[in-house]
Amino acid sequence: MAVELVGGALLSAFLQVTFEKLASAGIVDYFRGRKLNEMLLKKLNITLLTINAVVDDAELMQIKNQPVKVWLDAVKDAVLEAEDLMDEIDIEVTRCKLEAESQTRSTTSKVWNFFSPSSSSFDKEIELKMQEVLDNLEYLASKKDILDLKKSSGFGVGSSSHVSKILPSTSLPVDSIIYGRDIEKEVIFNWMTSDTNIHNNQLSIVSIVGMGGMGKTTLAKHLYNDPKIEVIFDVKAWISVSQEFNVFKLTRSILEGIIGSTDDSRDLNMVQERLKEKLSGKRFLLVLDDIWNENHMQWEALQTPFNYGAQGSKILVTTRSLKVVSIIQTNKEIRLKQLENEHCWQLFSKHAFQDENPQIDPDSKKIAKMIMEKCQGLPLALKTIGSLLYTKSSFVEWESILASEIWELSEDECNIIPALMLSYHHLPSPLKRCFAYCALFPKNYVFEKDIFNSIVVG
């Protein structure tokens, strides 16, 4: 499952490479010099742009939608065919240049020979194959509406209709105990209860940063629900932000969280005025969970009413992005790392054995710890795989899980893939290409830094 899923997800990276090749001077000059149909290039570019507009949404949908995954694979194959054709053209162009340079003719003659009309079988074959690729891609592009693929919203990836399928977080903690985060919790709690920035107008913001599944939201929940917090703040609200950063909707959600009822504001000005009224003179705590938006102007628009709160008000943010931390001008940054082995075992055992200190036979403990180590200190993986083991009573099944790849588990059994794939979708195109290159190597392959850098840069 993992290899197939990654293959589909890398389409956006392949498309960026194809766009660059299509725009290269060598390809354009070849078509012009050989008097080939330049409209093929223009139509191909437009068709690829049409596909590219919905590819982010498709990459998200493929996790649960098999027809979309089949469509992605077909598009990827067609795009690779187009790349192969352009590589053939590059080889032909290079061959012609080398032949021209080897002859003792004038510069004018070289240029004329290189770009002179040709009726060679190669040119005809290229034109014919390019038309076939274009026809195939146009057909695939025409199916995007049938598959209900939406244009990317511009912030994050995918359409809001599909993003909303990811459950928003709530302020209620699922677990009564949080493992391995006592130090971080104490640091943040001391900051939240201190008078930092009380003598200036700067917002007091703390950011919990870490990759998906690291436990950012869990830590924020335990802080938000700490009884000692209740007596410090006049009002508090928990907002699950996620990928769609709509200032009006978020402001209204914050207001509704504070007043405990539905708000009927019709525009941003109205809802911000109401929020300003509710926050004025009050010490508030606001948790903004899972922020992805990296647009500074949108953040400024959202935080305007916060400035009317009383001194000592605090904002707690969770995010995967260090750029978000910079944009919101955080005062305190907490970076979460993988859990230590002791805490890994406690969390894993709680879900695998319903006991953080289980009394089990040595063989079972040995295989359980080997499976635990595969989770590499990631709380989400420990919890998910531990819960899976709880449903497997047979020792043989445990051995099978140990021998298998975690990513081969179905989504019903393992929700790690959707959680971590979001991180991939938010990578810049150059890093997606780097990811595609890394995906060619086996798991746990050790890269030499200098060699890897030279290959990627080259």
Automatic annotation (TrEMBL):
GO terms for molecular function: ADP binding; ATP binding. Residues 200-356 form the NB-ARC domain. Keywords: ATP-binding, Nucleotide-binding, Plant defense, Repeat. InterPro entries: Apaf_helical, NB-ARC, P-loop_NTPase, Rx_N. One of its GO terms (biological process) is defense response. Residues 12-103 form the Disease resistance N-terminal domain. Gene3D superfamilies: 1.20.5.4130, Helical domain of apoptotic protease-activating factors, P-loop containing nucleotide triphosphate hydrolases. This is NB-ARC domain-containing protein. It comes from Trifolium subterraneum (Subterranean clover). The lineage of its organism: Eukaryota, Viridiplantae, Streptophyta, Embryophyta, Tracheophyta.
